[in-house]
Amino acid sequence: MAQQASTLDRPRPAVRSRPRVDVPRIVMHGILTLVSLAFVMPLLIIVSASFSSESAISANGYSVLPRQFSTFAYRYVLDDPSAILRAYGVSILVTTVGTVASLAVMSMLAFSLAQRSYRLRRPLSFYVLFTMIFSGGLVPGYILITQYLHLQNTLLVLILPYLVSPWFVLLLRTFFSQLPDEILDAARVDGAGDWRLFTRIVLPLSKPALATVGLFVALVYWNDWWLGLLYITNDKLIPVQLFLYRILTNIDFVTSQSQFAGQSLDVPIQTLRAAIAVLAIGPIVVAFFFVQRFLIRGITVGGVKD
Amino acid sequence: MGAPALLVLFVFHYLPLAGLAIAFEDFRPSTGIFGSHWVGLANFRYLLAGGDAWRITRNTVGMNGLFIAANLVVSLGLAVLLNELRDRSRWLSRVYQSTMFLPYVLSYVVLTNFVLTFLESNTGIVNHLLRAFGGNGVDFYNSPGWWPLILTVVEVWKGAGFWVVVYLAGIMAMNPQLFEAAALDGAGRWAQIRRITLPLLTPLIIMNVLLSVSHIFNADFGLFFQVTLNSPTLYPTTDVIDTYVYRSLTSTGDIGMAAAAGFYQAVVGFLLVVGANWWVRRRSGENALF
Q: A-chain residues within 8 Å CB-CB of B242?
C-alpha cells in the first residue's frame, strides 16, 4: 500500500516520455473493473437464474452462467399471459403518457422561469423550490386523493402525482438559461413570439437535457409500485412492479405454507421470481442504453440556485 | 406557459398542506378535514407515549446519516478515479460509468429480489458461501443487527452511479489549464486531486449533502419497506417514520397518529434544511441552496 501511494505521488511525466507500464493506472483500472463487476454481477445472476432449472439452483445455488439451461420459468409465467400482459400494458401506457406530459408541462414552466425578464421569476421559483423542502406528508395527500379527488382505481392516479417534479423543473431551467442569448435575441428580432421561440429553438437545442430528464421521469413511472400499492385495488389496473411485488409476497406466503405442511411445491419459486424480475427490468434497461450517452451533458446540477 | 405545472404543484403539494390539520383532529373520513373534532396535541401525546417516536426517529436519522456518508465517500472516490483514466481510456471509462449507473434504473421491487437472492437463508448466495467455508448460515431476515450494514450497501449500490455522473460532470466543467499549470509546478496526481479537484468540487459536494440533509427525516420507503420484506422482527433497526406512518394509516387505521408522525416529520425536516442552509450561508454564502 505504501509503495502504491508513493508511485501515485510521482509527478505526472510529460506526454512523450510516458513509461510503458504505468502502475497507478493499472491499479486504478483494476479497482474500477472490480467495482464494475460488483455493480453488474447481481443483474447477471438474476438473468442466469431465470434461465436455469429450479432443481439446479436448489442443489448448487446461484451462478453467473445458467446451470442446466431451461426456459421453464418463462413458460410458467407466460402460460397464462393475460395478467402480466395487462400489467405491462398499464405500465407502458402510464410511462409513455406520463413522461410526455411531464416533459411538456415541466419544460414550459422551466422556460418561463429561465426568462430573465420575467417579472414573477423569483416568487415562482420559490413556489417550486418550497415543495422540495416542505410537504404535508402521506396522510393529507392520501385523504385528498381518496376522499376529495376520488382518483383511486384510475389510471390518472398513477400519472398526476409525479407529473411535476421540482428538481427536474430547476434542472431544465438551468439548462434553458444557459442557451446562448444571441440565438434567442435574433429570433425575437425576427418576430418570433414566446411559443415559437420555445418550440422551434429552445426545445431542439435542449435534446440532451430533455433526454436525460425524460429518462429519469420514465424511470419514476416505470419503477413505481407505491402509487399502485396505495390507490389501486382493481386487478386490471396494476402496473408491472406491483405485479412483481404481489408475486414476491405471494411466493413468500406459498413457501411458508408449504414448509408448514412439510411438502414441496412444483412452483419454480427461485427461477420464477428471477424471470418476473427480468421482465420488470427489461424495457427500462433498454431505454437506459439509448439515453446514457446524454447523461453527463444533461445533468447540470449547478442549477438549484437562482 | 407555466400554468399547467403550477396547477399540478398546487393540487398535489399545496392543497395537502391544509390536511396538516388532521394531526390535531380526531379524524373521521365521514366528516372530513373540516368537520372532524379538534383534539389539540392528543395525537402527539399518544405517539410519544407509545415509545415508538424515539425508535423511528433514531432509525430514520441514523440510517440516512450512514447513507449520506457512505454515498459521498464511494461516489466521490469513484468519480475521481474515473476522471484520472478518462483522457487515455475513453472507451473503458464509459463502460465503467455505465455499469455503475445501471443499478440506479432498477426499482426497489426488483432490488428486493436481488437482496433475497443473496441473503435467503437456504439458497442465498451469502449463506451458500458461508457454509462452503465451513461457517454457519445467518438468518438475515430475522437478525435486525445486520440491517444497517445491508441497507447501506444496497443504497450505495443503487445510488452511487448517479452521484458519480454528477461529480464527473462537475470535474469535467473545470478549467484544464489549472491542472496543466499544477503539473508544470510539479504537482503529482494525488496533489492535483487534493489541491484542485476536491476544492473545486466543494460547492457540488455541499449542495449534495444539503439536499440529503433536507431529506434526512424522509426515509426511502421502498428501501425500508420492500427490501426488508416489511419483516416485523427487523423493526428495531429498520422501522422508520415513513414505514411507521404507512402502517398506522393502512393496518392499524390510526389516521390521527399517522398524521401526527407525518407532521412531526415535515416540520423537523423543514427546520433541519433551513438550519443547514443558514449554517452554510454564514460560512460561504455562494454555496447555500437559497
A: 138
